[in-house]
């Protein structure tokens, strides 16, 4: 299979998985909120996010597996691959026990840290423990997820995830309709994740042939050092990312009633949906870059950077435009009119932040593949500290919207003035060439669509989600025309034409 076909297969399968997940989440969110109420919904979001920090115990091991499986499989060093996988399994065994211990501590400290009413505390504690066990078990199987991704078999992982997501949605509706609450949601998640992990294990064993040799690994302790050195800076990146992502929720829960979390979470979830779309398309660049680096094909890495950045912008721009201009109206139709004002303001601020951030998903993936992610980890550390400081300062004066500004300002500074300089120097391209070839086309192509959305929002008011989505679909051709004539080069247009013609049945040409 050609490299391009492999990329397309992986990206399309990731998007299929993501679309199913987003559609399910989109329709389940108001259903869950309606069934369990504002307070328990806020608790569910809070508990989900604080237990999400347990993933930081990963120490970057999975990303290490992805990188080294891609690299050493390309070099045909199956013996070293087996040693790496065995070492990673040992590291995760320890992490599993630590994860369970930390989740028990979190459950005990929950009412001390957050403003949770006494009648809700027992339920919240139980959900924390169940979620902790779920994550602990996932660590054991995370090696095999990394193997599939290192082998660039995202399609296998996505196929399993799609099936499990559908089953999860059915069980969620069934149990909540019978009056069960967030404990049932946590148990459903635990059971289905165990099923997913078992399937992934067998898929990984079939995709990559390797042998585990316990004694041999003991004699090659440098493998642990290699995994740790790579994983430590992945961990630092992940810690800072989690702080920036979920720090707002924790700050709001500390300084404001827990019910206020819901207003911020609505906007943050919409932003997270957009981020997942971009990440699903760019995460495949990590093992691909490792593979190209193993071949010393630096020119192809430069091309990957430019095309990947351009791709990220083109993919995220229409979503960001709709969020910023029509976000309040959408939230009112989706979650209820009482949420549209505050959540809409938060969404506008976070959308601007994410718009500038779109190219950095490609940058991070390429740096991970090149083992050059150390400097970005330090940059994110600075951003995380500034994020928390500004958020705490601004929430006292501006409330929830202040937290949004606290998150946006440091991130925008990093992705505009720091990351482009770093990646252009590492890849070996001038900053001006990188910006000109990757940024200008998509940004100018999105202007007509933004103008059309602005005028449509003033001249037409949707009274249902169906009408809203219909309005967006009608406007989308304006964006596509701009992309075709402004963002695409002649070579890219010819490539698209060739692919389209190749999809047309031969009989139509007769």
Break the fold down into its secondary structure elements and pairings.
Layout lengths: L2 H50 L8 H14 L3 H36 L7 H30 L3 H24 L4 H26 L6 H5 L3 H34 L4 H23 L2 H10 L3 H37 L2 H21 L2 H10 L4 H25 L1 H18 L1 H9 L3 H8 L1 H6 L1 H13 L5 H23 L2 H14 L7
Notable features of this structure?
mainly alpha; single chain; 510 residues; 21 helices
Q: Can you walk through the features of this model?
A:
This protein has 510 residues and is mainly alpha-helical. It has a domain at 1-220. It contains 21 helices and no strands. The chain has helices at residues 3-52, 61-74, 78-113, 121-150, 154-177, 182-207, 214-218, 222-255, 260-282, 285-294, 298-334, 337-357, 360-369, 374-398, 400-417, 419-427, 431-438, 440-445, 447-459, 465-487, 490-503. The longest helix has 50 residues, at 3-52. The protein is globular, with a radius of gyration of 23 Å.
